[in-house]
Design goal:
The protein has 342 residues and is α/β, with parallel strands linked by helices. It contains 11 helices and 17 strands. Helix 2 packs across helix 3 (114-126), helix 4 (137-145) packs across helix 11 and helix 5 crosses helix 6.
Length: 342
């Protein structure tokens, strides 16, 4: 027991939008993946929620960076600062006098190149990780949902995150067919910004567009009355005159503006199903397809995809943390899970 004080095990869902860290099966950190850096010194001055409050509101001496784009590290230095800061936050709560030996499992997109995988591994090692394992996000999602990934049967998972949508058929502890497309939460946010500029002549920032997406985000024009949200009032400058204007945004408008992006996800799901072996396909038809990630919270998504594909879609319980729960499950079984990468 004395030596366990020097060893620490963490499971990390390093997401484009949010980073979640688990320790001893519990969430110890859930923060936006964003860092604020002082331009003069290059030092990190804020992380997570504090940095998000500064985003798009800073002076020239400070810049806010989202180190991950499209699910992979876009800014190596900022990613390292962010991971190091988050690990330090977790450790500070225990007031350790010594730097513990860290064993970490990190989720990565299934479409990562070798260079991108190396960037995640190096960033984690530089931030203090001694024993680093990597797991593909669709596999982590399946574990987090509670599926038996090592069984000789087909399970299909669609994980709509911030930067990528991961679609995979899993059997016997491996990804049989997988696709990773860069149409996900960030693209939905951009769609909303573009729509407001075109239809309402209002210029809004990334954070306001994200609030609209959460408040009235939908993919169907005819939601059930019990499910339909109230219109969201948004204020901003008129693009032409710079005068303040206001508009009331309904879920039908958001469903219209997200239609093309959702159609790309539908196409990718059908493409994966086309390549799925017949025996696994029959398992998927019987068991259904599971939705995870923040995008799964869009109203009407499961119904729209079920109607399109003719296979039942199920939204996972707490889809936002499915990958995090899966990495936590993988951390408990690093010796027995062959799909973990060292």
């Amino acid at each position: 027991m004395a030596f366990s004080f020097f060893n620490q095990e963490l499971a990390m869902d390093l997401g484009t939008a949010n980073t979640v860290i688990y320790k001893n099966g519990q969430i110890v950190l859930d923060e936006p993946s964003i860092v604020a850096i002082d331009n003069n010194t290059g030092k990190c001055i804020a992380l997570g929620q504090k940095a998000k409050l500064m985003h798009e509101k800073v002076n020239p001496g400070i810049r806010t960076i989202r180190p991950l784009r499209d699910g992979v590290i876009a800014d190596f230095n900022a990613a390292e600062l962010m991971i190091r800061g988050f690990i330090k936050q977790v450790n500070n709560r225990h007031n350790s006098l010594f730097t513990p030996n860290l064993k970490i499992v990190v989720g990565i997109p299934s479409g990562c190149t070798e260079v991108e995988i190396r960037a995640v591994r190096d960033s984690t090692e530089h931030a203090g990780g001694r024993d680093v394992y990597l797991i593909y996000e669709p596999m982590a999602s399946a574990l987090g949902i509670g599926l038996d990934v090592e069984a000789p049967q087909g399970n299909m998972v669609v994980d709509i995150g911030g930067g990528t949508t991961e679609i995979a058929v899993i059997s016997l502890g491996g990804l049989v067919v997988q696709d990773s497309i860069r149409t996900a939460g960030d693209v939905f946010t951009s769609d909303i910004q573009y729509y407001l500029r075109q239809q309402h002549n209002i210029k809004v920032g990334e954070i306001t567009a994200e609030k609209i997406k959460i408040a009235v985000g939908a993919v169907l024009q005819d939601l059930d009355p019990s499910e339909a949200p109230e219109p969201y009032d948004v204020k901003g400058p008129n693009i032409m005159t710079a005068h303040p204007v206001a508009a009331s945004i309904t879920y039908q408008e958001i469903a219209h503006c997200l239609d093309k992006s959702i159609a790309k996800i539908e196409t990718s799901i059908l493409h994966v199903l086309e390549q799925t072996p017949p025996e696994l396909y029959s398992d998927i038809v019987e068991r259904g397809i599971f939705l995870a990630g923040g995008g799964a919270l869009l109203r009407g998504l499961a119904r729209r995809l079920t109607d399109k594909v003719n296979i039942q879609f199920h939204v996972a319980e707490d889809p936002l943390h499915a990958v995090g729960r899966g990495t936590c499950e993988a951390l408990k079984n690093t010796d027995s899970y062959s799909f973990l990468m060292r």
